[in-house]
């Protein structure tokens, strides 16, 4: 972990160009100049690329970055990156590329993953855009016309890609030339932070939504959701429509689910939303990173009760696993990052 996010000794002179542009689209805030798509969120910056070439180690770095972010309680991954140099399009089947398999696991663990679909036009997509429940992003211009460079699907196993599109041609951003320089850029790399920012806003409004529900809302409210194709996917994202989307009847609402804990990280109270719990009786346990159970309780839900709160105020700072065990169902585990004395802690 390193607090320095600008170029360091040994870096190519343009190492920080791409990251500066992408982060500004997501997190920038300068009134009357530019407002990022989720400027009020908290961010972890992972530097995984060596732009002097294409190396297998970069893929390993990305996977390590995923693990690092997940261990700290990150809710969303915004990924403006992709690999194809040591793969072929036949490998992009959702279960072959190492980076794709890592993204599948991250999503299963409760992270929303948004990634650029690639800049190869009809030449095909890049990994990890082929992951099964990722939200891959194509690029349109200011007139909502697909950019020629925006990669088209399908995946090797025939799934539609990209999932959605956002402006990635002529996208306004900060640049690394100076602390006051701005410009426009092109690439699906600039579409992805617009979509991941939308996901952050949805989680702020609906903290109990699961990654599947976030993806459902994004796809099912995009502007060609009724006729998806391998150019635009489900279409251009409509953030407000996704915000008011009714999850009733979607697949993720018809099964038993436990949301990620929120807020996460947190100082005191952490909440979990239960969707269609199979029983009113559940055994709760909190497990530390050494595997020791620090709390166990048999809890009986009230009729229509769908939120469980746990008080961690007396726990040391650290990462904990919260286990929900309903009889005759596979236990569900959620990770919590607890930080004592966190600024603006949630109230009891």
TrEMBL record:
Query: Signal peptide location in the record?
Result: none
Q: Could you tell me the keywords of this UniProt record? A: Hydrolase, Protease, Serine protease
Domain (Peptidase S8/S53) spans 11-235
**Which PROSITE patterns did the record assign?**
SUBTILASE (PS51892), SUBTILASE_SER (PS00138)
UniProt record, GO biological process: proteolysis
What family, per the record? Belongs to the peptidase S8 family.
How is this protein named in the record? Peptidase S8/S53 domain-containing protein
Origin organism of this chain?
Answer: marine metagenome
